[in-house]
Amino acid sequence: MKIDRLLSIVIVLLGRRLVQAKELADMFEVSVRTIYRDIETLGQAGIPVVTYQGGGGGIGLIEGYRLDRNVLTEGELAQIFSALRSLSPITGGHERLMEKINSVVPPSRSRQFRSIASRQVVDFSPWGLPGASEQKLALIKEALEESVTVSFAYVSAEGTATARCVEPYTLVMKGQSWYLYGYCRLREDFRLFKLPRMKDVVKGAEVFTRLELSFGDWPWNDYPGERESLTEIILHFAAGDKHIAEERFDCSELQADGSGGYTVALRYPVDEWLYGFLLSLGPAAEVLEPEHVRQRLGERAAAVACKYHSGNLT
């Protein structure tokens, strides 16, 4: 990705006084022309990159900016390293940048750097072998890098499929699921699409002009529906199932019921996801309120049990 290359160039320049454009081009497997465009981009971003002509010339940082490699502290570099390592199993392509970050750290401090970088590990990849989701992510990532549209059939929670053509902006990991945020041409507005509901994803050839969006425009920190549509759900866990409750919910959310069990109050939209989530808790959890959710969940649980009744096995 271009942002990886730009950051890598800065890190290389922090560690060396001058570098030839041809050397950078070979290092990142791009043309010399692309390197000069990258240098221009860095300059527009406020990084004081200068080009010296003639014998012994090259590309470097203005004198005094280097700050003895302390533009980023070891802790900050370790955080960047950890973030790249977390993304690599899914998005890939960060190994070279991780090597550059390692090269900036003095050998005498490398052991401490590795210790700091290993204190937090986030692995977004699923258990088991790579499957269709990873292929879908890779295709969307290509579309993001090339600023081209993607087309797919999107299946709603009710099972209705609609054909979508989307200008992709951001891949989002939210609630252990990947989402694509982009401009939907069908709805003529920005939408958040859950990847498992995207079928037959195809990368288009049409290039679009990406709009500049502020961080305040990102929608994934709030539930996309109306707050009034959230319903309070009261769950009960028996004393022997406390470990299951603590695995799914924060301990501070659990309220002792006085007889060894626990209750937890949640606010969720009543939809297909909710019933799937409640069923995933198995017999450990019982819905106490509201009554209509309790009744509907019982009907669904009975339907599941019916499928596995000995008389229905094939």
Automatic annotation (TrEMBL):
<dbReference type="Pfam" id="PF13280">
    <property type="entry name" value="WYL"/>
</dbReference>
<dbReference type="Pfam" id="PF08279">
    <property type="entry name" value="HTH_11"/>
</dbReference>
<dbReference type="InterPro" id="IPR013196">
    <property type="entry name" value="HTH_11"/>
</dbReference>
<dbReference type="InterPro" id="IPR001034">
    <property type="entry name" value="DeoR_HTH"/>
</dbReference>
<dbReference type="InterPro" id="IPR036390">
    <property type="entry name" value="WH_DNA-bd_sf"/>
</dbReference>
<dbReference type="InterPro" id="IPR036388">
    <property type="entry name" value="WH-like_DNA-bd_sf"/>
</dbReference>
<dbReference type="InterPro" id="IPR028349">
    <property type="entry name" value="PafC-like"/>
</dbReference>
<keyword id="KW-0238">DNA-binding</keyword>
<feature type="domain" description="HTH deoR-type">
    <location>
        <begin position="2"/>
        <end position="59"/>
    </location>
</feature>
<dbReference type="InterPro" id="IPR051534">
    <property type="entry name" value="CBASS_pafABC_assoc_protein"/>
</dbReference>
<dbReference type="InterPro" id="IPR057727">
    <property type="entry name" value="WCX_dom"/>
</dbReference>
<protein>
    <submittedName>
        <fullName>DNA-binding transcriptional regulator YafY</fullName>
    </submittedName>
</protein>
<dbReference type="InterPro" id="IPR026881">
    <property type="entry name" value="WYL_dom"/>
</dbReference>
<keyword id="KW-0805">Transcription regulation</keyword>
<dbReference type="GO" id="GO:0003677">
    <property type="term" value="F:DNA binding"/>
</dbReference>
<keyword id="KW-0804">Transcription</keyword>
<dbReference type="Pfam" id="PF25583">
    <property type="entry name" value="WCX"/>
</dbReference>
